[in-house]
Recover the amino acids of this structure.
């Protein structure tokens, strides 16, 4: 069944460091995304966000926003959550459970001084006793995948650095991006080693931030302020330790990607630009392989020579990504915001020419133990 | 013994046999009596068939480095004083992967495929944490 949902409104909270609270960020973003859609607060009947409060999920933010949704989803699967929310909103809309789904995110990781990547990764569950005792950080878990990729396929630090360089080029065209000064491959390689083989500039930034998305029933198309973007295909998957027999070079994208493409009836060749979750450079490389943009093991060559930069064969992360623009902890919502703006032709200097089909892929959790993947294929309506 | 400032396991009834064995310097994996699947980490059911009839087996404690990272900067408790340290996935001879540290070797000499054996970090009375070193 083809999905029956439109993305009608988007908003990215512009600040990278803020004095506003995570609830305020979400309220301001929700208002702006609804305005972008040409809809109002009273139109919202479905609400989706991550469970930042253990045990009660969306309750405080629904209270704060004074909403009365008929459909609530607090799916929390890491940075890909908001990408998965679009998939869930489309399902709820197709089933008649709601017609205007609001998705929001807000975080103050930077102003509250959270060492997102280098602190020990403790989830408070049974699995901690087998994994969290060893100086196990998020960057360390991704670094182990990078090391294995280098071992099996000869991928180099220079090739990983190409991803950071292309992304910074894009950030230089985004007035909101945290870092806008161009960098070279050499700059990445001489930046401090965090967890080998990942250098500081292989890692995403830490910012505050947030945003909102409005997903609606296709019947509402004529009531919207702008030409909406259509959800062509969507899918999600989880990859984990598989009882101790995991090929850590294969991510959840290897499952969610082909299913989303099949639902959309398109292939990687039909995609003009892609928003690929870039917690670290290795995340992008593995994801591009698993989505079928190149063969497994050839990601290093694929990302080199400007192919993933604006003007290349497949521009990715045109907003400057998590590597240079913003990463408040869970970046998935920004992937959707930028893809929608590209399809609408609103990206100014960083606009991809004749952008008709865009791909979004969120990765949440860590490639080196367990993570979620959520893929969307979006097109002009 | 110097004070151990790294995280400690929160041992439950489900994992107690595993940690009791560690205290005896034995590393255990599990095998399912119903489908014979071998698994790590230990749990109350077989991950392959969900049978609750799983038994512990002593591992040889030997294997190879599947992948690793040498960490130079961290905020992880107890590890900041030991930089650089090695975090690794080890593939045991039984075919299952175990996350741990590689200790007692120069981090610069660690390689994927390197043979390793288990060694136990005696943290306190009755509690030892499995780590690996060059075999």
């Amino acid at each position: 069944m083809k999905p029956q949902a439109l993305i009608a409104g988007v908003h990215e909270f512009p600040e990278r460091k803020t004095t506003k609270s995570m609830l305020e960020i979400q309220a301001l973003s929700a208002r702006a995304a609804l305005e972008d859609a040409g809809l109002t607060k009273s139109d919202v009947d479905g609400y989706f966000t991550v469970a930042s409060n253990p045990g009660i999920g969306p309750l405080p933010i629904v209270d704060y926003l004074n909403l009365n949704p008929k459909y609530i989803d607090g799916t929390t699967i890491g940075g890909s959550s908001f990408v998965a929310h679009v998939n869930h909103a489309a399902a709820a809309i197709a089933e008649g459970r709601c017609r205007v789904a609001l998705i929001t995110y807000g975080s103050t990781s930077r102003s509250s001084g959270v060492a997102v990547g280098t602190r020990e990764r403790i989830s408070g569950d049974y699995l901690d006793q087998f994994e969290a005792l060893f100086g196990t950080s998020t960057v360390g878990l991704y670094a182990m995948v990078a090391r294995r990729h280098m071992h099996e396929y000869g991928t180099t630090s220079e090739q990983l650095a190409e991803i950071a360089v292309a992304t910074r080029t894009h950030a230089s065209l985004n007035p909101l991006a945290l870092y806008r000064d161009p960098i070279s491959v050499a700059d990445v390689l001489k930046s401090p080693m965090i967890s080998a083989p990942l250098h500081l500039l292989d890692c995403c930034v830490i910012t505050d931030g947030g945003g909102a998305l409005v997903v609606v029933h296709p019947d509402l198309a004529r009531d919207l302020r702008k030409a909406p973007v259509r959800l062509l295909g969507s899918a999600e998957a989880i990859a984990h330790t598989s009882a101790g027999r995991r090929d850590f070079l294969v991510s959840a994208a290897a499952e969610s990607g082909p299913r989303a493409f099949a639902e959309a009836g398109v292939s990687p060749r039909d995609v003009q630009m892609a928003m690929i979750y870039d917690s670290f450079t290795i995340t992008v490389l593995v994801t591009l392989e698993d989505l079928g943009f190149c063969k497994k093991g050839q990601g290093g060559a694929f990302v080199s020579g400007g192919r993933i930069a604006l003007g290349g064969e497949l521009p990715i992360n045109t907003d400057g990504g998590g590597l240079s623009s913003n990463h408040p902890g869970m970046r998935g919502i920004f992937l959707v915001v930028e893809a929608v703006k590209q399809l609408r032709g609103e990206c100014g200097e960083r606009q991809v020419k004749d952008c008709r089909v865009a791909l979004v892929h969120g990765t949440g959790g860590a490639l080196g133990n367990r993570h979620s993947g959520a893929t969307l294929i979006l097109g002009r309506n | 013994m110097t004070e151990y400032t790294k995280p400690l396991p929160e041992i439950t009834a489900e994992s107690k046999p595993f940690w009791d064995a560690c205290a005896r310097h034995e590393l255990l994996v599990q095998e399912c009596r119903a489908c014979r699947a071998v698994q790590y980490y230990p749990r109350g059911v077989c991950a392959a068939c969900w049978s609750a009839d799983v038994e512990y087996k002593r591992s040889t404690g030997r294997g190879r480095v599947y992948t690793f990272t040498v960490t130079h900067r961290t905020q992880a408790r107890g590890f900041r004083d030991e930089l650089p340290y090695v975090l690794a996935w080890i593939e045991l001879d039984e075919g299952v992967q175990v996350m741990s540290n590689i200790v007692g070797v120069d981090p610069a000499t660690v390689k994927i495929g390197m043979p390793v054996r288990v060694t136990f970090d005696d943290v306190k009375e009755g509690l030892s944490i499995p780590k690996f070193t060059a075999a």
Q: What stands out?
A: The helical segments of chain B are 16-23. Strands of chain B lie at 28-32, 38-39, 54-58, 62-71, 85-92, 97-102, 115-124, 127-134. Chain B is about 5% helix and 40% strand. The mean pLDDT of chain B is 96.
